[in-house]
Amino acid sequence: xxxxxxxxxxxxxxxKKIGAFFLWRSDELVMSLGYQSLWGVSVCLFPFEGTPIxxxxxxxxxxxxxxxxxxxxxxxxxxxxxxxxxxxxxxIKEDLTQLGIESLPISYIQHIGQSSPPLMAGEGTxxxxxxxxxxxxxxxxxxQDITSAFLELYAIKNDVEIERIVLTNQxxxxxxxxxxxxxxPGKSEVEVASAVEAAIQNQVxxxxxxxxxxxPQIQSGINLTNGGRFNRSTGKKLQSxxxxxxxxxxxxxxxxxxxxxTGSTGDLHAKYLxxxxxxxxxxxxxxxxxxxxxxxxEIDKIAREYIVNCGYGPFFNHALGHHVGFRYHDPxxxxxxxxxxxxxxxxxxxxxxGIYGEExxxxxxxxxxxxxxxxxxxILSDFSRGLKWETK
Amino acid sequence: xxxxxxxxxxxxxxxKKIGAFFLWRSDELVMSLGYQSLWGVSVCLFPFEGTPIxxxxxxxxxxxxxxxxxxxxxxxxxxxxxxxxxxxxxxIKEDLTQLGIESLPISYIQHIGQSSPPLMAGEGTxxxxxxxxxxxxxxxxxxQDITSAFLELYAIKNDVEIERIVLTNQxxxxxxxxxxxxxxPGKSEVEVASAVEAAIQNQVxxxxxxxxxxxPQIQSGINLTNGGRFNRSTGKKLQSxxxxxxxxxxxxxxxxxxxxxTGSTGDLHAKYLxxxxxxxxxxxxxxxxxxxxxxxxEIDKIAREYIVNCGYGPFFNHALGHHVGFRYHDPxxxxxxxxxxxxxxxxxxxxxxGIYGEExxxxxxxxxxxxxxxxxxxILSDFSRGLKWETK
Lengths: 392, 392
Hints:
The structure is a homodimer. Chain A is α+β, with helices and mostly antiparallel strands. The first copy, chain A, folds into 2 domains: 3-152, 3-Layer(aba) Sandwich (Creatine Amidinohydrolase, Chain A, domain 1), CATH 3.40.350.10; 159-379, Alpha-Beta Complex (Creatine Amidinohydrolase). The first copy, chain A, contains 9 helices and 13 strands. In chain A, the strands form 4 sheets. Chain A has a 5-stranded mixed beta sheet with strand order 4-3-2-1-5, sandwiched between helices. A 3-stranded antiparallel beta sheet of chain A has the order 6-7-8, covered by helices on one side. A 3-stranded antiparallel beta sheet of chain A has the order 9-12-13, with helices on one face. In chain A, helix 6 packs across helix 7 and helix 8 (270-289) runs antiparallel to helix 9 (296-309). The two termini of chain A are 35 Å apart.
């Protein structure tokens, strides 16, 4: 847990006169403590002042826990314990009393909603619904909903967090290199995806990269007409002279990047090349406009107007970008037409214009992750975005 | 949607006098309709008689939808729609009236709890919490909770479903072969995991395997002492003469297998070989005991007593097995000490004894997926379970 983040959370709790906030969703634990839960059932009691208490299940690994928290275990996952949740509830109740805040309101996000997967990503196993309901009554001060204010904390990343998200982008670059290396006619979309996943996962070491996982989706040729509606990899084999797109979420140690590139398997028909060039130009213009004080609508407008002026307006059918870093899509104000939220230093936005359509027979998108700095922007994913891999 | 499954669901709704059940969690949609949602926000209105209505978002692919349902779309994901959930709510309300069941009680599982990921597995994006709360009031007949009775439907698989789970196990075999092929000193745990993931994902074609994904966790040598508490892959490199374990969930077209194998990187010390042999023998004995009419406790006892008699009792610290097929771990009665639930034809159980401990310096588990047949059992994962890959 970094001090800046602890301060920003406790400042909010003081403003809202909340005694403690309970964290339990995977991305909340990363955002607040920098802690990536393995089982997905850890819970943190974050008091308005002093040191947070982290309750982990007995089965949780002990070697990758956050610093500067008080650790307690509860018997989830043990064969002889039929209801660990009641035990956890009593522990939390007791700790509120010990902290002398048993009469102050508590808060937490009650529903899982949009959230990142825990390490055991093959199955969602959140804390029990019963506990989630019961926790609202754990304090004499009652429950107070500060969900939207809490989610606003995701928007501004501090220096420690930016450094971690930079690392994620560095790992993503290795996956993107593997993507370009595998643009070989005859390979299937899933084979390209597999190569990217392996390249990224294989970066795990016992030093700074303890977890690295990618969720790439590869679409090629005609399949790209759907690229603005959904992304998935199929058994379709790449053909020569096709556009091929990768849409990819990457998670390293709990911190996320969201990258898109569009490459080609060989010389393109002029009409496909033109689409790529328009997307590329629109993306670059929008990125260069990013600066504190601008509005989300202004940035969106730059890419959108360019695409409209080039005659592809109806084919750019989604938002220009969204916050990213603590999960694949962070909460916060997206870059959309007429958006009036103001960009601030420390925000990280995806910038991802695209053009796709059945009438066009193809699609393309380019997406970078861009930090708003004190006087402009910094591209965190500043690696090749052409039709072929290019080393700077 | 297969007719047998439709009948079993509608029989339950008739018994409970429920007008309609709403399905929205990924594994519910697979169990009920054989449908794997891409975005994870599709909802099905399953009436007590007649044809189910499936509401899909505009952005959902149209080429892999279930047959024998009425399809409707709602505007989730479209840039100009700020609240698709209110629209979906009104559609459901209107359809209940059209079906003439607007005064009968409705039911659904309100919380997400344990569930499988949708195709877009990098981020959970379930239907909005607001809709989940509001749906309870959509019918004049009110909400009735039949969660536990509904989850009982997961336990018995019909012939169509068994065939699909067999396919998943066939794909899993290819991943397990890749696991054994990669037991090479110098490779890291994550590198072995990557090879397995690629082998499985690469089975996707445009014919019968539209989606194949594996969540393998590889542990080797000393890391296996934790194999009974948690599974994960690290950057540790395999050394010669080590035990190496793969714990793996595999999903093909929405249907799951859960397989564990323990291999070796070369000649083992006698004490490690002994642990492997005890696990192997315990597992085989328990599998062979499976038959309709037996209790969950009887099956658990066979493996557990054998391990206790061999002197490793304290090191087998988890349940013997659980239901599997619609997700990594299906709901239902597990194989546990003193369990008194009765095995029935059509159930699929994992059988997975293990021995692990810091004192032992290692660990091992073997896990198969076993169908209860009319007069005994059938191993669906009937491929090599030795220290090396062996073709039958």
